[in-house]
Amino acid sequence: MEARHLRYALALAEHGHFGRAAGALGIAQPPLSKQIADLEREVGTRLFDRTRRGVFPTAAGVAFLARARRALGEITAASVDAARAARGETGRLRLGFIASALLEPLPDVLGRFGRERPDVRLELHEMATSRSTAALVAGELDVAITLGRPRGTGAERLVSVPIGHDHLVAVVSGAHPFAGQASVSVEQLRRQPLIVAPGEDEPALTGTLRALLGEDSPAVLAGASVARDIHTIIGLAACGVGVGLGPSRMLSVPRRGTWFCEVTPRTSLPDLVLSFDARERSPVLRAFLGVVRGNCPDAAAALDLRLGPREEGGL
């Protein structure tokens, strides 16, 4: 039994006449009569009464047609669902990200993606760079946003593109001696209790701080307070715990009772990097990368370089 048999039976029931049903279907009457007869033999019972007044479903036919109508509806829905999935309009996206990405560019990217793909299920996980890299390599994430490029076993399989640039800034409480200053020097930082991200989670940032502080870095960083994200760094600084060090994107979340200073010499931090498995090209991932391309010009150029120019409806 094929879908066309169901369509033929429904058309015959609707028109009550073989000739009219055949015309509506765009076929000749003899083939329609044969297909209905074949269907009745397969079902094992008569589905239509042929009378001089027309063709009418039997009791068995009524029961069959009810199921046939639902079955054709499911077939149509399946085709629609398959097409939507192929366009990346349904499915899921598993994204791991560091907290600072919530300042920029994730709000615009996720907002636009949610509006354009409301039926895609987003699974969002705040993760340190080391954890999200491992999860991405293990296939537990579809895409990750990290500080610096992923490193370690399996990282060679990843496509990684920069989506944001930062430099180091300091944040202190309003009562701190640095408050009111436009900048602080490295020499001044060496003599202050610091607040930093955990080294094991963000090794790229820790490496930058070690290089900046020079030979004093082991002692200075050993006594530093450790904060899991930029909001905690700012919060601890506001409490007067010490001088918080973090990315310049912290400037977008000023907090009452705090003061931000540039660090001299100006020190570039590792890029904010978006990564995904080069072998994974699901429609939902393609759709997400399309939004990233539209919102992050640097990423668009890098994705074009790695993946080729964007095609209509694709990446």
UniProtKB/TrEMBL annotation:
InterPro entries: LysR_HTH_N (IPR000847), LysR_subst-bd (IPR005119), WH-like_DNA-bd_sf (IPR036388), WH_DNA-bd_sf (IPR036390). Transmembrane segments: none annotated. The keyword Lipoprotein does not apply. Coiled coil: none annotated. SUPFAM superfamilies: Periplasmic binding protein-like II (SSF53850), Winged helix' DNA-binding domain (SSF46785). The keyword Transcription regulation applies. GO terms for cellular component: protein-DNA complex. It holds the Pfam family HTH_1. Keywords: DNA-binding, Transcription, Transcription regulation. Residues 1-58 form the HTH lysR-type domain. GO terms for molecular function: DNA binding; DNA-binding transcription factor activity. It comes from the Bacteria. PANTHER family: SMALL NEUTRAL PROTEASE REGULATORY PROTEIN (PTHR30346:SF30), TRANSCRIPTIONAL DUAL REGULATOR HCAR-RELATED (PTHR30346). Belongs to the LysR transcriptional regulatory family. This is LysR family transcriptional regulator.
